[in-house]
Amino acid sequence: MALHIGDILPENLGTDQNGNLVKASDFAGKKMALYFYPKDNTPGCTAQACSLRDGYAELRGAGYEIVGVSVDSEASHKKFIDKYSLPFPLIADSDKKLAEKFGVWREKSMMGKKFMGTVRTTFLVDESGIISHIIEGRSVDTKNHAAQILGIS
């Protein structure tokens, strides 16, 4: 199952780096950029997280809350947040249930080798909890992701 533009965000999103349950209702009345990324501390994922960190004040000014998701553990997320001073939560989707629900856990290939992994995807969600825009795969500008989101809204 994959979520599409016009779908409602599921209520239970998972647990963050501190083990706190993150729910869609926590963001009622606010826009959200829910971004799925492959792995903490890799070049593209770090560039994307740092772009969102550097543009955080502007994104918040535009009404956005930022939430990241990867299949890394809570401990890995804590280290990633601390290392790069990330001001937003990261959901630890270790069982891949959220990635599967959103349709971003798919077959990928690198150097001719096929494997399952997270396709980098950002879901923009409106104040009513409805997915309004999806940026996927190579369309995600990791180095300028905050500006990319602000350009859409």
Record the strand order, biggest sheet.
5-4-3-8-9
CATH topology term: Glutaredoxin
According to CATH, what is the class? Alpha Beta
Number of helices: 5
Uncertain spans? none
Structural class: alpha/beta
What kind of sheet is the major sheet?
Answer: 5 strands, mixed
Succession of helices and strands: EEEHHEHEHEEEEH
The portion of residues assigned to helices is 25-40%
User: For the CA atoms, what is the radius of gyration?
Assistant: 14 Å
Any guess at the CATH architecture? 3-Layer(aba) Sandwich
- Average pLDDT works out at 96
- The outline comes out as globular
Domain count: the total is 1
How many beta-strand elements?
9
Note the beta-strand portion.
25-35%
CATH superfamily, by name, is Glutaredoxin
Straight-line distance between termini? 26 Å
List the helices and strands and how they pair.
Blueprint: E1 12-15, E2 21-23, E3 31-36, H1 43-54, H2 56-61, E4 64-70, H3 74-84, E5 90-92, H4 97-102, E6 105-110, E7 113-118, E8 121-125, E9 131-136, H5 145-152
Parallel strand pairs: 3-4, 4-5
Antiparallel strand pairs: 1-2, 3-8, 6-7, 8-9
Commentary on this structure:
It is a single chain. With 153 residues, the protein is α/β, with parallel strands linked by helices. It has one domain: Glutaredoxin, CATH 3.40.30. The chain is built from five helices and nine strands. The radius of gyration is 14 Å and the shape is globular.
Question: How would you concisely characterize the structure shown here?
Answer:
This protein has a single domain, classed as Glutaredoxin, CATH 3.40.30. 28% of the residues lie in helices and 30% in strands. It has helices spanning 43-54, 56-61, 74-84, 97-102, 145-152; strands at 12-15, 21-23, 31-36, 64-70, 90-92, 105-110, 113-118, 121-125, 131-136.
